[in-house]
Amino acid sequence: MQDAVCAALMIAGTFFMVVGGVGVIRFPDLYMRVSSSTKASTLGAGFILLSLAFHFNELGTTMRAVATITFLVVTGPVSAHLISRAAYGIGVRLWEGTIRDELRGRYNPDTNVVESVELESNEDERPQAP
User: What three-state secondary structure class fits 114?
Assistant: First the structure.
């Protein structure tokens, strides 16, 4: 039973890694490629590390695997965000099929600051105080 769980986790991890690799090859711009590779590799490595934890079935190995998974889950999205923001700052183009650029006109590449925008509010929808 343990070998079947290990094999299933390893296959799931391999599947996500392959899907991430295909995404890097197939997606049209850097931002989509970074997103694909980050999500798929984090999930794939997580499943492979869980397989390792189930295979060895020792507390020390399991704790190292869980710590590594936690590290990947925390640092993967942060690093992808920083890479994408740096790419946007130096002017890497968006895909021509991109419908909306939320940062256009709000991002200052010299200071790396995104200017806040006032949210629209409807005074009519707010409940009136008695």
Answer: strand
How many domains are there within the chain?
1
CATH of the domain at 77: 1.10.287
Cα separations in angstroms, 29 against 56, 87, 107, 114: 40, 11, 19, 22
Angstrom distance (rounded) from CA 87 to CA 47: 30
Q: Which two tokens stand for residue 9?
A: 């986790």
Q: pLDDT tens digits, residue range 48-92?
A: 999 999 999 999 999 999 999 999 999 999 999 999 988 888 888
Total-model pTM: 0.76
Quote the tokens at residue 1.
Answer: 């039973």
- Count CA within 13 A, CB hemisphere, residue 49: 19
Instruction: Tell me the C-alpha to C-alpha distance, in Å, between residue 8 and each of 26, 38, 63, 91, 121.
Output: 27, 22, 20, 42, 50
